[in-house]
Amino acid sequence: MPVSDISYRKRFLTKDNVYLPHLVIIEKIIDETPDTRTFHFNFKDKGLREEFPFKSGQFGEYSIFGIGEAPFCISSSPTRYDRLEFTVRRVGSLTNALHRLSVGAEIGFRGPYGNGFPLDLLEDKNLVFVAGGIGLAPLRSLIWNVIDNRDKYKNIDIIYGARSPADLCFKYDLKNWDKDKSINMVTTVDKGDKTWKGRVGFVPQVLEEVAPSADSAVAIACGPSIMIRFTFPVLAKLGFTPEQMITTLEKRMKCGIGKCGRCNIGNLYVCRDGPVFTYAQIKDFISDEY
Ligand SMILES: Cc1cc2nc3c(=O)[nH]c(=O)nc-3n(C[C@H](O)[C@H](O)[C@H](O)COP(=O)(O)OP(=O)(O)OC[C@H]3O[C@@H](n4cnc5c(N)ncnc54)[C@H](O)[C@@H]3O)c2cc1C
Ligand code: FES
Questions:
Q1: In terms of Cα–Cα distance, which of 267, 271, 231 is closest to 247?
Q2: Which of 18, 20, 48, 143 sits 20 to 30 Å CA-CA off 172?
Q3: Is the minimum distance from the CB of 250 to ligand 1 under 6 angstroms?
Q4: Which residues pair with 110 in a beta bridge?
Q5: Is the Cβ atom of 90 under 6 angstroms away from ligand 1?
Q6: What CATH number does the domain containing 131 carry?
Q7: What tens-digit pLDDT sequence spans the chain (290 residues)?
Q8: Does any domain span residue 143?
Q9: What residues does ligand 2 touch, defined as CB less than 6 Å away?
Q10: Would the pTM of this model clear 0.85, i.e. be above it?
Q11: Is 272 a pocket residue for ligand 1 (Cβ < 6 Å)?
Q12: Contact 58/73 with Cβ under 8 angstroms?
């Protein structure tokens, strides 16, 4: 089993060159949607896996030699020790290069970075997960984490949407959560097709229809900025305070560790102080983005 966080940090993150990546091997590739893939990976030095602790919501910097480096959250749960996964939507040079990789490819990885979701704040609460598109990737890690410790949490609502049925990520997980009687799973698409028998509607509208109670609850939302922009007011209407709303932010990053100053919002660095924030922490800074 993994040893303590401190031991890993002592051994790997305080080396002279904090930018030096570890080599990891791609072990499996899953096509999620036409533009999104999940990569299962492991450290080339198998001993490192034993000592690699991470929290749901943390991210890593992944590199392809000669092309570049970019941050992606770890989309698997720390409670599933046999898995390390990240999920990538193809948008530019590095993400296209990652999509060209085959099983067996070696890439660089440094991390884990960032704060992760505040599990202590979520304990004994009703949890409302609200996600859109690839935004389910960080939430998925937390959802499995919560399911694997089910008795620590109360009701779970998951409201997940994508542009079309083909754009729904992690369909295998959605099926599992749908079958789980202790979860209220609601899936929606902006536009259905001939095969789609489920809900049609934007995530914030569906959230309003489902209307989860804000009483003893925390909402965790992640998705495209347009979805987040309309989700916070709906949550507020349902009675959630800014302290009861959590999200993860994405900013252009370089170092990932609070040194280059690339990712600030107000006086916060998204890489070091986040990427997970309560709405109360960020509401004064993000009006231009959301
Ligand atoms: C903490 C964190 C976690 C992330 N987790 C994931 C994840 O799990 N899965 C995933 O697919 N993506 C994730 N991202 C976004 C991912 O890092 C970018 O998509 C990636 O850096 C794009 O690299 P590229 O070289 O392919 O694109 P570029 O060629 O650099 O850019 C292509 C386009 O994407 C835009 N872009 C690039 N980076 C970002 C960014 N960080 N935010 C918004 N727009 C950007 C550019 O402005 C440009 O329009 C995360 C970002 C952060 C900061
Ligand atoms: S990415 Fe360098 S300070 Fe955040």
A1: 231
A2: 48
A3: yes
A4: 61
A5: no
A6: 3.40.50.80
A7: 444 555 555 555 545 678 889 999 999 999 999 999 999 999 999 888 888 889 999 999 999 999 999 999 999 999 998 889 999 999 999 999 999 999 999 999 999 999 999 999 999 999 999 999 999 999 999 999 999 999 999 999 999 999 999 999 999 999 999 999 999 999 999 999 999 999 999 999 999 999 999 999 999 999 999 999 999 999 999 999 999 999 999 988 999 999 999 999 988 999 999 999 999 999 888 766 65
A8: yes
A9: 253-256, 258-263, 269, 271
A10: yes
A11: no
A12: yes
